[in-house]
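Re: weekly structure request thread

Next one in the queue (270 aa):
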Amino acid sequence: MNGFFEHFAHDRIQIFGKGEHAFLIGMEAEQRTHPLERFFNFPIAGIVFTHGNMPPDIFLQFAVKNQCPIFVSQLRTSKFINVFSDFLDAELAPQTLLHGTFVEVYGVGILLQGKSGVGKSETALELVQRGHSLVADDAVRIVCRDGARLYGHVSQTIEHHLEIRGLGIISISDLFGAGAVRLSKRLDLIVHLEDWDEKKEYDRLGLDDETEEILGVEIAVMTIPVRPGRNVPVLIETAAKNHNLKARGHHAARKFQERLARMTNNAVEN
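Done, posted below.
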């Protein structure tokens, strides 16, 4: 409003707080015209007046002439910037749709993936019965926040329903209550469920941490073979607890290997 437009960030939302509004109101009528003409010559995306302040008539006239939308918020400037920044971050964040069943187990967001019929929904149902939460089934919307965190969100179409073969479609929130479901959760671990293959060599030690890249973020991955007699929900719970331990720097498999190496060295020396 002083007429200095060097490096003017016109492609951003322009926010007029209490100070800017007071300065604008305090200007003489003839002093406003020239800076407003220069201001609105830029392709302004939108203007927000905070604290419930209304722009003067001449400001509105320029906005209408240049087809620039103006909004008024009752929030104070700092609060509005925080709320609006979070909103834009969520709405404009990169996202993708993944097939699987997303659950929260001991605070860990786990995406169960595998071919149709492998038992993803049944496993999720058992986990809910054991006190854990369902986030989404079948179609999971994954959103990347801050370029480093992934969050899974429930589909508005499917909501918190599960398809169980032999039972049909069931509503988890209706059967188990609101505490058994969540609208979103950070994705921490991907578990691939697959039919047991006798010819395949599965990881028996867990020394190597596998990851999968989604929207530029590396997510821990593990594979659990499924066959009659294996309690998959218990394995998922154990995987969640083990993931929490690894996050705190305790890697059981590596510690076991180090202890075994020390014992072997001592035996050789003796």
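The radius of gyration is 28 Å. The mean pLDDT is 89.
Next request, please.
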